[in-house]
Q: What sequence folds into this?
């Protein structure tokens, strides 16, 4: 079955760029019409969607983070990546990658996106 | 602040039924998605669409919607259902995915 695994530094200095990679195994990142997402969770807090990308490269970002976020995909490696620039202590969080099904509207009603497979998460601390 | 509002904590006696709610303007248009998260673990999808359960999710979990409120109902709560539950939807503009603040479920 499809599995996701995050990797990257656990400690990033303030003002630097946080870089994480999610490796997809057990299936192709290019198949199935899924989209690939990053979601974070501040310590003891709720979930925050960061952004998503299709294998084609189309991206969708949270407007509150858009100026600092870049998500890219490398289909040859079956990976997608997150870069978050100019980090501060407020970016300290558990970062999850997830496989998503994009929402759609039909018959006067809309169906929200859903994330059916998640990585185990990786904790990133921003500190000097 | 979240555009989806959840009660911070709910409790239920073992074997009883509990409803966890999520309120937001976008829910008048969107069916919410629900996730279960246990301590130290990644969230798990439990309800999506109108009322669909992924493979492996017990049928005691169900979803419903009325007006601006989405509900996750656990019929016959089990000890293993003790967890945080998050609702998720697009916001009213449709451009952003938002999560509720989460509800901590305690099974007594």
A:
């Amino acid at each position: 079955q499809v599995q996701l695994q995050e990797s990257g530094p656990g400690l990033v200095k303030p003002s630097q760029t946080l870089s994480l990679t999610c490796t997809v195994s057990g299936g192709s990142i290019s198949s199935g019409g899924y989209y690939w997402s990053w979601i974070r969770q501040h310590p003891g807090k709720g979930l925050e969607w960061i952004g998503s990308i299709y294998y084609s490269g189309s991206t969708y970002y949270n407007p509150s983070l858009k100026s600092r976020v870049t998500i890219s995909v490398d289909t040859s490696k079956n990976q997608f990546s997150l870069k978050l620039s100019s980090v501060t202590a407020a970016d300290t969080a558990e970062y999850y990658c997830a496989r998503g099904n994009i929402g759609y509207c039909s018959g006067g009603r809309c169906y929200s996106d859903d994330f059916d497979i998640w990585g185990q998460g990786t904790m990133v601390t921003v500190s000097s | 602040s979240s555009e989806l509002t959840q009660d911070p904590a709910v409790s239920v006696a073992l074997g009883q039924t509990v409803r966890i709610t999520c309120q937001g303007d976008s829910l008048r248009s969107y069916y919410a998605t629900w996730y279960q998260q246990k301590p130290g673990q990644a969230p798990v999808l439990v309800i999506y669409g109108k009322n669909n359960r992924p493979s492996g999710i017990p049928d005691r979990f169900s979803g419903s919607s009325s007006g601006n409120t989405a509900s996750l109902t656990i019929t016959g709560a089990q000890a293993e259902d003790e967890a945080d539950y998050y609702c998720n939807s697009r916001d009213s503009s449709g451009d952003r995915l938002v999560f509720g603040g989460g509800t901590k479920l305690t099974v007594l």
